[in-house]
From TrEMBL, chain A:
The lineage of its organism: Bacteria, Bacillati, Bacillota, Bacilli, Bacillales. Residues 59-188 form the Radical SAM core domain. It comes from Paenibacillus typhae. The keyword S-adenosyl-L-methionine applies. Keywords: Iron, Iron-sulfur, Metal-binding, S-adenosyl-L-methionine. This is Putative DNA modification/repair radical SAM protein. SUPFAM superfamilies: Radical SAM enzymes (SSF102114), RuvA domain 2-like (SSF47781). Signal peptide: none annotated. Gene3D superfamilies: Aldolase class I, Photosystem II 12 kDa extrinsic protein.
From TrEMBL, chain B:
It comes from Paenibacillus typhae. The lineage of its organism: Bacteria, Bacillati, Bacillota, Bacilli, Bacillales. NCBIfam families: SAM_7_link_chp. It comes from the Bacteria. This is Probable DNA metabolism protein. Residues 245-272 are annotated as: Disordered.
Length: 438, 272
């Protein structure tokens, strides 16, 4: 089998892994070696699906001894199998990197023989890259659940980021769809990596040149839409992982059917892209906007409304906290206004040191007033001529353009005023009584 | 700031030259109607005053900026000068008027027309520079490598440090075809020099082999069920495609249908 064919097979098998970020590590170049790493990460291309290509994302092999129902590489799926040698991986990474095609390598693998043996193969490839080829670029490696602790520790010393995929958001789903994996076998290596990173950070305080363990931290991924888990469950799990395991990122992958299975949604199911998008929005609210999972969803309303983004939903349900005065509100409160993001909030804070802001000034700062206008005042006054009626409010908050992006052309147009969705909106009728305080 | 005269300044197009225009304006307490760089062929209707570039004058202006305004203002000024915004000279002059009047506070005056426009221009330049960190594609010719870019702004100085650090042991060139400048690096040495014309030689067999490997990787990594041409074009604007082997190769896929008008919705900031 020639290189081209192998690369195609092993890329096809790896593409359902979402993570392709190269951020979190800062390492300068060195004479005699190739590469560096920059903390903000760099995208080198964008695939036809619009996702960033930053790393050479391949599997070592797509042969696997496990039989997880959702996975394209499951033992019982008759796909073509291939395997790279460590030498081949190292060679192609170096050649691509030199041409500036990629930011580094994302290496994962099906399980060959045993988790330990697989991990040894991964280590062999990374050692070749780091020690023989003196590669200083970014490396993301998958930790194989069930591998020996000592092996995982060695792997972490060679990589920038490690990840263990949690795959499914609940133990039930896991038991059903991935019978060879258990919650325990996934959380155990995750915990080990977290501990190693913490340990390493204290060592680094003592010895400046102590070798670094996964300096870009740990991430994970879960599949959305293959099982009946609710957004509320997923978001709670997310919050727990960020807090307890100090993960850097959690990725959501809209379930794309690749194999037929009675336990799974049928093969013609469309990936729930809008739901995935809402989860990412909520994920950002947790990480950068100071929100907590229980503020966004609860048992009574366990799923996100497809028509409203999570922040708008929250704001409509908490009208007593609005409007806020742009010239006095704290950074934290500004962040909670729909339409004001991290950059806008920072610019507002900076600009109001130079003078009071009015709506005209906000536009100049790049604050999108379409949504924000209903929740703010400038110098104590709302936007002139602003009408707050039931329809204007909701229509402005529901972003048609945004929804359009998640509709495939062949799907019939989603009607804005489909009754079932409107009924789910938080008390739309009360919008008329939405008043501005002095 | 000063009374506007019906004059246009013209200068040699260098950063020092522009600083001399600032000097001239303060010396005669006059605000020109426009500033043109030599050869831009504009302003035929206005009486033009030629501003000679004088290193002493330029230095005086340059030294006063960190003293009277701030170091950040100096950076902003340089980046603004490299940006591709039309009439950048007047914008920079107006920014300096403001800066010399208000001092360091000018950096916070984001709602001011001039400061806002300058920041926007610089943001565009920075974004383009950041794009090129990823979108530069080297072709390897034996021991040396070369890339061609066609940026709108003058990004070479913005991306210089990054590439020289990353490829410390390599000899490479990045040729900016728009501005006819080239960044040349050899281990331990680097320079940005003017280069009128450079036509890349045909890649050899090894190079062609890695290009087609990259192309097949590119096509294998996309998920068909999630195809989204609009998203791709907004994250990787089409003007970059010309120099990306994965977008120009024999099997490069064209969009299924050309997107309706260029009114691509911006990806929500949350996902960037």
């Amino acid at each position: 089998m020639d290189m081209m064919e192998k690369l195609e097979i092993l890329t096809e098998s790896a593409k359902y892994d979402v993570a392709c970020t190269s951020s979190g590590s800062q390492r300068s170049g060195q004479a005699g070696s190739l590469g560096n790493a920059v903390s903000f990460g760099i995208c080198h291309s964008f695939a036809a699906d619009g996702r960033c290509i930053s790393l050479l994302k391949v599997l070592m092999t797509n042969g696997c001894i496990y039989d997880c129902a959702y996975c394209i590489n499951r033992k019982s799926n008759p796909v073509r199998r291939a395997a790279f040698t460590p030498q081949e991986i190292a060679d192609i990474t170096m050649q691509f990197y030199r041409r500036n095609y990629i930011e580094g390598l994302f290496l994962s693998s099906g399980i060959m023989r045993s988790p330990d043996y697989t991990t040894e193969q991964l280590i062999a490839a990374l050692e070749l890259l780091r020690n023989e080829y003196h590669f200083r670029g970014y490396i993301h490696v998958k930790a194989i659940p069930g591998a020996d602790d000592a092996l995982l520790s060695r792997l972490g010393m060679l990589a920038d980021r490690m990840s263990v995929n949690i795959e499914l958001p609940s133990q039930d789903s896991l038991r059903k769809l991935a019978p060879d994996k258990s919650k325990q076998s996934i959380l155990q290596p995750m915990g080990l990596i977290t501990n190693k990173i913490t340990e390493n950070s204290t060592e680094l305080v003592k010895y400046k040149h102590a070798p670094r363990f996964a300096p870009a931290g740990q991430s994970t991924q879960m599949i959305v839409g293959a099982t009946p888990d609710t957004d509320y469950q997923i978001l709670n799990l997310t919050e727990g992982l960020y807090k307890k395991y100090k993960l850097k990122r959690i990725f959501y992958s809209a379930y794309t059917p690749v194999v037929e299975d009675s336990l799974l949604p049928s093969l013609d199911t469309k990936p729930p892209l809008l739901r995935e998008h809402r989860l990412y929005q909520a994920d950002w609210l947790l990480r950068f906007y100071g929100f907590e999972a229980r503020e966004l969803l609860d048992e009574a309303a366990p799923n996100f409304n497809p028509l409203l983004d999570p922040k708008c939903s929250w704001a409509i349900n908490h009208r007593e906290q609005f409007p806020v005065e742009v010239n006095r509100a704290s950074y934290e409160m500004l962040l909670r206004v729909p339409g004001i993001g991290v950059r806008s909030a920072q610019r507002i804070i900076k600009a109001r040191r130079a003078g009071t802001l009015d709506f005209h000034a906000l536009k100049k700062l790049g604050v999108v007033l379409k949504r924000a206008q209903f929740f703010i005042t400038c110098k104590g006054r709302p936007l002139e001529g602003l009408k707050v009626g039931e329809h204007t409010l909701l229509r402005s908050l529901m972003s048609g353009q945004e929804l359009a992006k998640f509709q495939q052309p062949e799907i019939e147009q989603l009607s804005f005023f489909d009754d079932s969705y409107l009924a789910a909106l938080p008390e739309a009728g009360r919008a008329a009584s939405f008043r501005y305080g002095g | 700031m000063f009374a506007t005269t019906s004059l246009a300044y013209s200068y040699d197009g260098s950063f020092e030259g522009l600083l001399c225009c600032v000097f001239e304006s303060y010396q005669w307490k006059e605000t020109p109607l426009a500033i043109h760089s030599e050869g831009s062929g504009q302003g035929l209707l206005l009486e033009a005053k030629w501003i000679e570039t004088d290193k002493m004058k330029a230095d005086r202006v340059l030294r006063s900026i960190p003293l009277k305004i701030s170091r950040e203002a100096e950076d902003l000024l340089r980046l603004g000068f490299w940006s591709a915004v039309p009439d950048k000279e007047m914008l920079l002059l107006n920014f300096l008027y403001l800066g010399f009047t208000h001092g360091p506070a000018v950096m916070n005056m984001l709602a001011d027309d001039t400061v806002c426009a300058l920041n926007k221009a610089v943001r565009l330049l920075r974004r383009e520079g950041h794009h090129y960190l990823g979108f530069v594609r080297f072709t390897v010719y034996g021991p040396v490598m070369a890339a061609v870019i066609e940026p709108q702004g003058y990004v070479l100085p913005v991306i210089e440090d990054h590439f020289c650090d990353r490829f410390q042991s390599e000899s490479f060139m990045i040729y900016d075809r728009t501005h006819r400048m080239a960044l040349i690096h050899q281990p331990g040495r680097r320079a940005i020099i003017p280069l009128e014309e450079w036509i890349p030689p045909q890649p050899d067999e090894t190079e062609a082999a890695y290009r087609s490997l990259w192309q097949s990787f590119y096509h294998a990594i996309g998920i068909k069920q999630r195809r989204n041409d609009r998203q791709r074009a907004s994250m990787m604007p089409k003007r970059y495609w010309k120099h990306l082997p994965e977008m120009t190769g024999k099997q490069a896929d064209r969009p299924v249908r050309t997107a309706r008008k260029q009114q691509t919705p911006r990806r929500p900031r949350e996902l960037q």
